[in-house]
Amino acid sequence: MTDKVFIHELTLFASIGAYDWEHTIKQRLIFNIEMQWDFSKAVAEDDVQYCLNYAEVSQRIIDFVENRPFKLVETVAHQVADLIQQQFGVQHLRIELHKPKAVAQASTVGVIVER
Fold first, then answer.
1. What digits encode the pLDDT tens for the residues 95-110?
2. In terms of pTM, does the model score above 0.90?
3. In angstroms, rounded to a whole number, what is the distance separating the alpha carbons of residues 28 and 90?
4. 41, exposed or middle or buried, with CB in 10 Å at 0-12, 13-18, 19+?
5. What percent of the chain is modeled with pLDDT above 90?
6. Residue 2 has pLDDT above 90, yes or no
7. Residue-averaged pLDDT of the chain
8. CA triplet 21, 95, 109: central angle to 5 degrees?
9. Which of 40, 43, 66, 102 is deepest in the core (most CB within 10 A)?
10. Does the CA dihedral 111-96-109-101 come out positive or negative?
């Protein structure tokens, strides 16, 4: 199976950082997510009920990340991967998580999680 559903540049604001001062502000995080999904039944039936609902996935990620503090982007990426796999039945995924402006000389830094 090579069908994928993707969400690019899902942007949210979170309490994240290893330093105490970082938790006094909300910082921007940007997700690029690819999720393997078998489209065959959705295509055969031409029915949205057999699709992976990217709007639901996006909202679940926003609710999860924006409502708790994190220290590390690594933790966020791993916990979001767990959430997607457990709640939406996605077996294979790739999450690219960016924390823009975390390093003054770089436009963005981040991590990639693949499962």
1. 999 999 999 999 999 9
2. yes
3. 26
4. exposed
5. 95
6. no
7. 96
8. 40
9. 102
10. negative
Residue 86 has a pLDDT of: 98
Say which residue the tokens 């105490």 belong to.
Answer: 20
Structure tokens at 57: 């996935």
Catalytic (active-site) positions = 99
50 — phi, psi (to 5°)? -100, 5
Alpha-carbon dihedral sign for residues 95, 111, 26, 24? positive
What CA–CA distance (Å, rounded) separates 70 from 28? 13
Token pair 């992976």: residue: 52
What confidence tens digit (pLDDT) does each residue in 5-38 have?
A: 999 999 999 999 998 999 899 999 999 999 999 9
**The two structure tokens encoding residue 48:** 């949205």
Tell me, what DSSP letter sits at residue 16?
B
Which amino acid is present at 6? F
